[in-house]
Amino acid sequence: MWLGPLYALLVVTFLAWYLASGHAARKLVTGVSAFTALLAVLPALRDVLRLGRTAPEPVPSVNQVADGLAHGVRQQWEAEAQVRRLNDPFPLPVEWVAADADLVESWSHLRELVGDWPGQPPANSAWAVSAKGLAGKGGEIARVFEGVPTGRLVVLGEPGAGKTVLLIRLLLALLEHRPPGGPVPVLFPLASWDPARQDLYSWMADQLTRDHPGLQTPVPADTPQPSPGTQACALLEQRLILPLLDRLDELPEAVRARALQAINQVLPARQPLVLSSRIAEYRRALTPPAGTTVLLNGAAGIRLLPLDPAKAAAYLERDAGGPGTGAAARWSRVTASLGTGIPASQALSTPLGLFLARTIYNPRPDEHLVDLAHPDELLDQARFPSRADIDTHLFAAFIPAAYRPHPLHPTRWSPERAQRTLTFLARHLQHTLDGTPNLAWWQLPKALPKHGVAIAVGLTAGLIGGLAGGLGFGFPFGLTSGFTYGLSAGLTNGLLFGLPCAAGAALITSSAKDRNPSSGIRWSWRGKSWLIFGLAAGLGFGLVTGVWNGLAIGRDFGLAIGLTNGLAAGLMGGFMGGLRSVHPDLDKAVGPGAVLARDRRTFSVMTLAGGLTGVLALALALVIVLALALGYRVSLPTALAFELPQGLGYGLPFGLMLGVVRSVWLEFLIAQVGLAALGRVPCHFMSFLADAHERRGVLRQVGAVYQFRHVDLQRHLAGRRP
Question: Where, by residue number, does the polypeptide cross the bilayer (predicted)?
Fold first, then answer.
């Protein structure tokens, strides 16, 4: 509505100035008319292309989206189960019983509740007869979940008892028997949720789109499915996501009761879910100091038991090579003490304790026993008088054991360097990021001073853009002269441009929300408004520069230069504004490395696209303006060769700025270089994280982020001296 009057005002103003100066209007009318006609050609060309376009691809239904998501989730957690060695040497036989009656709903109430649901069939044969029927072990967790009438289950256990691993086994079992179009079980670590700031649905939608960027695709308004917004929102609203809410205890104590209330209020009564927590923390969340007791509506519960001593002993011996081997014989005194209640027995009664102990004391292939500590030291009660002392010892010895030198598993990082880096990362998560377990590479810049990264990004962008522009404009004067001019002008302009850019970036980042990485780009016809706006703005820019140049070198050539610059700026801005985000397929798992590669690709493509677009736009504008305004005919190859340096000088800085805005890779790179220079992280930071996850077992991967193997390991490292 306002673009047309603005365009008319600019044309009338320029015509008045041009005619008042005493010049003939013939050439001017020709140029302005051609430019106006070009604006009209663009929507006409769009309509012609639309008429000749093939039929659009069918929009997938929500059930088809759920099927694709199920494949991606299954691929992700099968790979993670292999990395965590959940089946090596064999799955630990975790057992459980029904949770205490005061922590869950009564069984009779659950059956009555389901009976009151509209359209609910009579009692299902798969339902347990009573709460005692929820007892089980190992792979029976799927059967136990199906035995809950409401489909709501609370998994409780002591620290390290295996709650998260049990949820992973349940997730994989549900996916194994999932019918096409059925709900998709998705694991949601609750530690990153702030119930006071974000409702549960919005938070789950954000987690889904972060780990599966394909779910960012908007749902068309004319589709048969009623759910608006993105595909992630559609899946949640149609109950095609079965949330496995992991580790309520990792939320701050002050908000756990509010989190339970939010779950009760947001999720409908017929929405199945699973919630895990430590026992003591869950009990305190149900009975806050102020307020009434709040139970999870319609939920049954199970409580994980300590490991059976005989099975724990068999696990340690089997991991050491089996009974009869020298490595297994080292465990004889320790396994004999299991079940006696001494500190070592208590520490080794959980899957976490067994994992730490086998990593520290069991040899890898071709390792010599004499080089390893002996497990009998765990029985020294003078040195370890309590279980807490044993746990502290195991956490302290775990990192050196995971990084000990081995000929079959060479590493670029010594145990000391790995310990120093992991301690820094744990302190970064615990103190800088308020205790979140999510180690996201795009949040690494927060480890530096508040505005340091913003200033560095602004200066870097300004220097690179100024250097490219200086070299481009200096090239026509010869290679040596052009390089000298470009270097000096580029550094000068870069500093002049970078300082205000840095100040603006620092001001914006002080109040802006967290920036997320890009998933890729493509050009879309949806950018047609940007194209029209860019051309109109370019014309205004061209008129202003035409007046300025006309005063200096003559009106005709000044007008030609102004129109050339304006048309080029409009074409470049319009094309670059049409670039849109691309969303990958749902059936592919997205890891931190893949997210980084896509975001880096976005930055590179935006920068290069800006440079190439600048060259092509200037060449096309030169051909059009010279032919229409001055009557000169120049071939497009000649114009491309002539405008190559200047086009790069215009386009590269423009593309670089858009790349900085639409990706976070440059910020991460600067933070990584800065922290590496300070000795906080290795130069190959992402390789270090991947090695810590895939080969050392120190980190685990949850979608697009890493986490420490256990939150207590993170807290232990965060409490160490830096």
Answer: 32-49, 453-475, 487-509, 530-551, 557-579, 608-632, 652-678
pLDDT tens profile 8-66: 666 666 666 666 666 665 556 655 665 565 555 555 545 544 444 444 456 678 889 99
pLDDT tens-digit series, residues 475-513:
556 656 666 666 676 666 666 655 665 555 555 554 445
Evaluated on CA atoms 227, 232, 236, 242, the torsion sign reads: positive
Residue 59 burial by CB count (10 A; 0-12/13-18/19+): exposed, middle or buried? Answer: middle
Retrieve residue 168's tokens.
Answer: 């992973």
Q: What is the CATH number of domain 67-304?
A: 3.40.50.300
**According to the 3-state scheme, what is the secondary structure of 135-162?**
CEEHHHHHHHHHCCCCCEEEEEECCCCC
The predicted model scores a pTM of: 0.80
DSSP 8-state secondary structure symbol assigned to residue 363: P
Collapsing DSSP to helix, strand or coil, 414 comes out as coil
Tell me which DSSP letter residue 372 carries: S
Angle between helices 279-286 and 253-266 in degrees, nearest 10: 70
d(CA 452, CA 458): 10
Q: What angle do CA 204, 209, 215 make, to 5 degrees?
A: 115
Q: Cβ neighbours of residue 259 under 8 Å, at least 6 residues apart?
A: 190, 193, 195, 248, 251, 285
Helix (H) or strand (E) holding 543: helix 528-553
Q: What are the residue boundaries of the structural domains of the chain, listed by start? A: 1-53+518-663, 67-304, 309-397
In Å, how far are 442, 517, 660, 666, 668 from 462, measured between CA atoms?
A: 22, 22, 11, 13, 17
